[in-house]
Design brief:
By secondary structure, the protein is an alpha/beta fold. Helices cover 44% and strands 16% of the residues. It has three domains: 40 residues; 216 residues, Rossmann fold (3-Layer(aba) Sandwich); 76 residues, no CATH class. Strands 2-5-4-3-1-6-7-8 form an eight-stranded mixed beta sheet, with helices on both faces. A two-stranded antiparallel sheet has the order 9-10. Helix 4 packs across helix 7 and helix 8 crosses helix 10.
Length: 359
């Protein structure tokens, strides 16, 4: 029995010694161990982006401007992020999706306009005469945009956009146009908002074309969408109710140098974070980068012909030439689509009708 008691005493001493070692180890490691465990528990906010310089630049910037007490801390009110749309948040090839909408609308409206069968550029479009349609040039495009974007109320136009998105399919990918959004950018929008940023879409596309669907797809409410606009007038409709009528007159072009002007007019704060993909975004990126304090300017470079498209300096759509040189000179972040993105588009969820997840 004495031997067993001695054994128990030895085991008790060993147990107390083990607890002491554990306590000393915890004190030695200190907060580092806690921070390490917390870091392991944190989910990746940008899972569709490969680890690399671009992803690190984004997360490092967000950490810098949101760390209270840090040298680069920016209060939430100043955390403004702006994004181009075409080619930055969704695909823009083989031509801008708003033009695809206009062409499809001409076909849908043709039964109510029998004269179009003999009138250019509508005749060429209806007969699928691409050479004659191209020969109509900018004047022909302007005529198509006029008949499909004006002479109706803003509510009627918004409904026509929603109807088109519900049925139209991209010629290459055979998916709804609003499913051809970039999964990494959806994650980036959500990541920024989770860190107190207010995200704005600043696009050359028509604001009335974008607002009907952007909140559903990007999580951006209509008031956070800035775009080109036509003249809209107030009137009393035939039913005696007020309505807004779209006129066939351009009011504002939100592209190139118009983007910082639009930001100033409709947002009122210079962004600290901006993303684009073409020379049409150059001035927005320059305006953002020129501000005081921490700044982030990013470019999506289309380099993946297999999963999406590859184009830059010679492209007629989304030409990236001067902005690419400015990025190199200014140390801006260039996202290489092929190298930096694990996924391009979100998975297509079908429940009778095609739908896409919100960011």
């Amino acid at each position: 029995m004495a031997l067993y008691r001695k054994f128990d005493e030895i085991m008790s001493l060993l147990a107390r010694f083990a607890r002491l070692v554990a306590l000393v180890t915890l004190l030695a490691v200190g907060c580092g161990a806690i921070e390490y465990r917390e870091a392991l528990a944190q989910p990746d906010p940008l899972p569709s982006c490969n680890d690399g310089a671009a992803k690190q630049a984004i997360t490092a910037f967000v950490t810098r401007v949101t760390t209270q007490g840090g040298a680069d801390f920016v209060p939430a009110a100043g955390r403004i992020a702006t994004f181009d749309n075409d080619g930055t948040l969704w695909t823009e090839q083989p031509f801008y999706f708003q033009l695809a909408f206009a062409l499809d609308r001409v076909k849908a409206m043709a039964p109510q306009h029998p004269d179009w069968k003999a009138r250019q550029p509508f005749k060429a479009l209806l007969e699928k005469d691409t050479r004659a349609l191209a020969a109509s040039g900018e004047k022909g495009v302007a005529q198509i945009l006029t008949v499909t974007h004006a002479g109706m109320t803003t509510d009627a136009f918004a409904q026509s956009v929603r109807d088109w998105l519900a049925t139209a399919r991209h010629p290459r990918f055979n998916r709804p146009y609003d499913s051809l959004v970039y999964q990494p950018m959806l994650e980036l929008l959500a990541y920024l908002r989770a860190n107190g940023f207010k995200t704005f879409v600043v696009s050359g596309g028509g604001v009335e074309f974008m607002r009907p669907w952007m909140e559903r797809v990007y999580g951006n409410p209509p008031e956070q969408v800035v775009g080109s606009s036509g003249v809209v007038t107030f009137q009393i409709g035939a039913d005696g109710k007020p309505e807004l009528m779209k006129a066939a007159k351009v009011e504002f072009i939100d592209d190139g140098p118009g983007k910082p002007v639009g930001i100033n007019r409709f947002i009122g704060r210079r962004p600290i974070f901006a993303f684009g993909n073409s020379d049409g975004d150059l001035q927005m990126l320059q305006w953002t980068a020129a501000g005081e304090g921490a700044r982030f300017a990013g470019i999506v470079h289309h380099t993946d012909s297999a999963r999406e498209h590859a184009y830059d300096r010679q492209s007629k759509i989304g030409k990236l030439d001067k902005a690419l040189d400015a990025a190199a000179a200014g140390g801006w972040t260039v996202v290489d689509m092929k190298q930096d993105w694990q996924e391009i588009f979100p998975p297509l969820i079908t429940t009778g009708a095609a739908k896409e997840p919100k960011p």
